[in-house]
Automatic annotation (TrEMBL):
Keywords: Cobalt, Glycosidase, Hydrolase, Iron, Manganese, Metal-binding, NAD, Nickel
UniProt-annotated binding residues for Mn(2+): 165, 196
SUPFAM superfamilies documented for this protein: LDH C-terminal domain-like, NAD(P)-binding Rossmann-fold domains
Cofactor: NAD(+)
Any GO BP: carbohydrate metabolic process
Name listed for the protein in its UniProt record: 6-phospho-beta-glucosidase
Family, as annotated: Belongs to the glycosyl hydrolase 4 family.
Domain Glycosyl hydrolase family 4 C-terminal: 191-422
Cofactor note: Binds 1 NAD(+) per subunit.
Site (described: Increases basicity of active site Tyr): 106
GO molecular-function term, one example from the UniProt record: metal ion binding
Family matches, as InterPro entries: GlycHydrolase_4_CS, Glyco_hydro_4, Glyco_hydro_4_C, Lactate_DH/Glyco_Ohase_4_C, NAD(P)-bd_dom_sf
Amino acid sequence: MKLTMIGGGGFRTPLVFAALLRDTQPGRIDHVALVDTDESRLRTMSRILADQAAGVPDAPRVTVHTDTREGLTGADFVFSAIRVGGMDGRAADERIGQSHGVIGQETVGYGGISYALRTLPVVMRLAELVRDVAPDAWVINFTNPAGIVTEAMSRVLGDRVIGICDSPIGLARRALGALGIRSMETTEIEYAGLNHLGWVTALRVDGVDRLPDLLAAPDRLGSFEEGKLFGPEWIQTIGALPNEYLHYYAFQRDVLQADQYAPQTRGRYLLVQQDRFWSRAADAEHPYAVWQDFRHERETTYMATNRDSAGMGDRDEDDLVSGGYEDVALALMRGIAYDQRARLILNVRSGGALEGVDADAVVEVPCIVDASGAHPVPGARVPAHGRGLVTAVKYVETQTIEAAISGSRSAALRALALHPLVDSVRVAGALLDDARSTFPDLSYLR
């Protein structure tokens, strides 16, 4: 099978390749096509993957392409992992947000909307190209904001586009670890919400929900990342485990203050780190080792200002383990290609599975995967306290998509002004004006 990775020169590509190298089952991916606009990064990434595959028999063949149509030809699966505007764009969004006293993080609030507005026109063209060049391919979307991007692409590709995020499975793994449970083979996770806005509502192990045991033990709740971030008392108060990105909503003022005191924004830090990485990896004898070092550095500093606002200090080594989105992607591909039934938390069209959300709206819920795709498990429930937030943010997402498709400045303004993390229509207008003057890509908004 052939896997085409759009944005294959991106930093996280070796994570996906590692999962492919671990896969020894018949019918595995044997050709990976990396597609990117940056030819020098493609060359370096090709060297990293070759170094990573050293000593692995029958490793997938890797080809590199700057022509998207060429890279897509013959693809069975397509990964979309692009960053329109690059890390410079992320840093600019954070700066604009801070200048108006709002959070500029790349997937929530102003930052997420701005990022989506410049990304959606690009991914819509990509969806049309996939439809024309590789109509039988399945698209697995990693591009952020994952829920909005997946929903927009579904207007072209229908259910053949599925979004993935590692936050839910990472949260569940850490929570189970706090209970002393290391294997997830007999675990069934109940999760409901939108991308970067959801809750674990049950952790069934061998049919028994262990979440009440965790909620009854403040010491265990406070032993892992999300428990430290939100505090055991608040998690006990809401009766569910919140996705880490809900910290921006629950502790908005605290995060804003921490952002103001931080020596630099996350985007600016990654911009500097990224330049150092590509420079070192380009000439290194063992570039994969360089990538591993820089990845550990990234994970160590992840959500640093949020942790500072909660007084958490450094991350524990157990918390540095990724949620495993690459393994979820592999299970998803195998489930579809070989009808290997699996239960996974994915971003898909609701189809009525999540109460109060339109059937065509993309939500993040448990799904059953088989040869015909990913099917939401009926009955997913958002905790009562979060239903209004989900409704509000979903409206913002639909208006963001409307703005990108129609070029409507009014829709973009509605999205910004009505987002729960933007508290003023005047500020929303100023944010939009600053974004349009900063990013030429947004000139289509009129």
